[in-house]
Model the fold of this input.
Amino acid sequence: MKIKQIAYLSLLTILLASCNTTASSSLEQPSSHNESSHTTSKTSETPTCDHDFVLQGNVDDVPTIIKANGREYVCSKCGASKYEGASYDLNEYAFKDQTFVYDGQEHKLVIKGMIPYGCTVEYENNNLEEIGSKEAIARIYDSNHKLIDQKKATINIIENTGLYNIYVDTSNVEIVSKKDYVPMTLSTDNCPEIYKKNGLTGGIRCRGNGTYTYDKKAFRIKFDSKANMFGLNDNAKTKSWVLLAEYADQSMVRNMTALYMGNSLFNYSNNYASDYMPVNLYLNGKYHGLYVLAEQQQANNNRIIINEAATDYKGTDIGYLIELDSKADEEDYYITVGKINSSTWGQQSGDPLDGVMIPGKKYAIKTDCYSDTQVNFASKYLNNVYYALYKAVHGDGLFVLDENNDLKASPYKSQYETLNSIIDLESVFKMYLLCEYMKDIDVGYGSFYMWVDFSSTSIYKRLTFGAPWDFDWSSGNVKDTYVSSSSGEYNSQARGNYNPWFFMFSKTDFFKSMFKKYYSVFKNSQILEGAIDQANYYAAAYKSEYEKNYAKWKNLGQITPAYTPESARNFKKHQDAVDYLTNWLKNRKQSLDNIFK
Done:
């Protein structure tokens, strides 16, 4: 867990970009042109206003990612905002070492994470084209160009020998089950010596729901002893890993694009998003395709840090990892939240809100339970948090939970204070933003995670959202016309298999205005641009590897699986599918910029 680092700046003025009266937060990204060794992010000159700032009141309850402490003032003429006595959160971003393979292009490092309002980033010694290494410097300045933070990191460029290889040997036993592991040994090569494995023992099985039906299967690996794979997640050692087939996504970079954004949103704020990398997989000596190696979504001291129940422990003072999952009843432990009519799968039942019925959903408990008491405890807790949110937006009053997880009248006067006392709203905003950007069709169907921990050492005493996962059916890669469109709001619409949490949050009196601030931080941190750069880098640097995958599986440009949109027929080469994705994301940005300006 990271300790929050806050830089307090006396009477610091942070101007929002809403009326462009000052330089907004900006972050220089890699570009194709040459530049000197010292580069500065800049913005164009903007019209000035003879401001008439009016005090709006204390803003202590606004999350530190945006600002902390101080008072907000708004110009009565142009609407500009400023904050006095505010502080910056310096733990929402990182400047980290990164290694590229040689591809003849210039490479640079970028700060990853959420850059505070009013800040600019200046880089020094931050460009490298040939094989070698270089230490770069990133300096963070406030709106008065006062230095508030400085970080150093190393750019490395190495010889391009292709993707790292994973070899799985099952003694020719076929891997067909989602439940039963097949014994295996695993080795790696074509990677730095410190990452090479030789004969690690464990098991491998198939994974996924829809993906399980595809010709190219996804797999879950479980080692007998904890091990790290290729330095992912800061070399954390764990037993369980995932190999994503990316068969439904012909760009094969959608999940990595979403996880890049998820890492920037979550991994510097006591939350979690999986690390990842593309690899080649060989099964029993034969090439099996290009896969994305990622982390298993699980409670773990190096992943989602909640306290699991010890074997046969039946108490309720434990952590619960919960997944919204329409197939939850196939899991060992599951609950329902909201009103569900089993005969119609909730389509004719639910809770009324704004002229629609919010259907109940099924949720799998992904941590071990050893008693009905634990399952019933989780069910009561999650249902009452859910109904506290529902009642707040339905106009039935403000409620929180008492020591028995029963609803009781809220001691707070506002929706925000009430809901933030039982739900980590910062995690909601970030998860909402990512799913809104990607238009993830599965957000109300499955792979949507939340957790809480009732143990004495808990760092998650409120319901927390995070661990973004499963974005292959998103960002235009969907047959549904509305979902595939890059325009329009998504999470706030009661369409298809929508997410009830997001739909209800969008109806609160604070959500829209506060979400705009989160969106502005996200946009000015240029996280999307970094994700697009990553997609193009993988496609170009490993072009032959993607070609090899499609030579084997022959699904490029095909309508397979059946939910693949017709646009896929236009893909003649892998880069076509990547271009379709990146163009969709750029268009999506234009749409959201207008909606949340």
Q: What stands out?
A: Confidence is low (pLDDT under 50) at residues 1-46, 58-62, 64-70. The first strand starts at residue 6 and ends at 8. The two ends are 33 Å apart (CA to CA).
